Structures
1.
Amino acid sequence: MGDSHTKGEKGNPEVFAGQPQSNTGLERLLDIMAALRDPERGCPWDKKQTFATIAPYTIEEAYEVADAIERGAMDDLKDELGDLLLQVVYHARMAEEDGLFAFPDVAEAIASKMIRRHPHVFGEGGGDGGAHQWEAIKKREKEAKQPQNGPARQLLLFEDIPAGLPALAKSQKLQRRAARMGFDWPSVDPILDKLEEELLELRAEIASPSGAQKEKRQFEEFGDVMFVVVNLGLRLGIDAEAALRAANTKFIRRMDSMAAQAHESGQSLEGMPLDEMQVLWDRAKDAEKQGDARG
């Protein structure tokens, strides 16, 4: 989970002493987490954690799962899924300590939800199991949670989308939902036209005279460009988050290649003229293309 967590475990070898040998890996993991959080004999680092302090690790582990999938590293994926499962067990253990719920409640809740939202598989509700059916069931569930006494509150369109989602992921969720309502471009061409329009507006703000509002307007126009790019990705069936991760990986690979080329000639990228770096960049690109052709 983190260096401090690892040190905490190693510094307390007795944490695992006397733990029952459970029948399954999951039961064993639950027992281990209970021992780590034990008020008297637990790990000092683990005992002081809260939902808030663990949440960043939960987000990080989800990204590491996505990274392993993108790299096609199945052995790493097994390990990263374990790390992500640990996060669920961790939060559930803290909730159990507070008398809120326990891990079996978490498992039962998601099992019941999956059955409710798949009537075409587990019931006699029919339907095709598409996104429209999923959203309709989800909406009914939220309406059912409203207070029974007094007038029903009008549900906001996007109130169930977490505020803390990464911006690209949230933009995709917002635009997918709007598209299911019919608020979407009919084809790719008008999206490209809109992208060109937003780029022109950004160019205009960049070229505008300096003033009190220039930075704010540039910020807003840049955001509009990104929002349209996400919409274009959805239309093309491209996940914007995954595409940007892939672009980041490609950039890292090519920069590493440039640094290696510079080192071979007794140089360094630091201080190298831009036109010389561009030559190294082009070589890195060409080498990739040749490798793809051979593959």
2.
Amino acid sequence: MYQPYPSGGQPAEPPRPPVPAPVLTAVKLMYAGAVISTVDLIISLAFIIGDNKAGHATLNGHRLTAAQASHLYPLFITVAIVSGLVVIAPWLWMARANRQGRSWARILSTVLFGLATLELISVLPQSVISFSGLAGLGLIFWLPTWLVGLAAVRLLWRPASSAFFKLQGVTQAGYSAQPSSRIGSSSSRLPRRL
């Protein structure tokens, strides 16, 4: 059977196996985690803007004056946006990398979930004690986000998912290990030694 030789002297990349259902579901859950984190960011920004307009801004339990709040307002907004994007970006990155079958992404997703678990454990007692205001609202978003992460990581380590990641690793290693043959190169004209 005739297969056209790809341009550039590199052999064609082998076809990728289909992504199994558990990995697809995990990827969808990761996108859901990004959406939940985006909603959390928007609500946090609304609280910051509302507190500033109402004159209820506080920092470490101390009520800020109007002058202090207006001076620190851009900093609060910037910190909220950056910290929100720091949470959203890994969700999207891990979803894409896991869909491509990158085994390092499955491991990194598990490590990130472990870090989120440690953070939830540290935030949970404070949120339960003061279930009013932004601390209580943080728990409302942390818990669903954590549950989404738990479900995604569990799906990434299912047997069908493990076989997919293993096959992708073998396919990538096999493809990168193939020597490139160039027609008319100087090395192809040299005699071989036995």
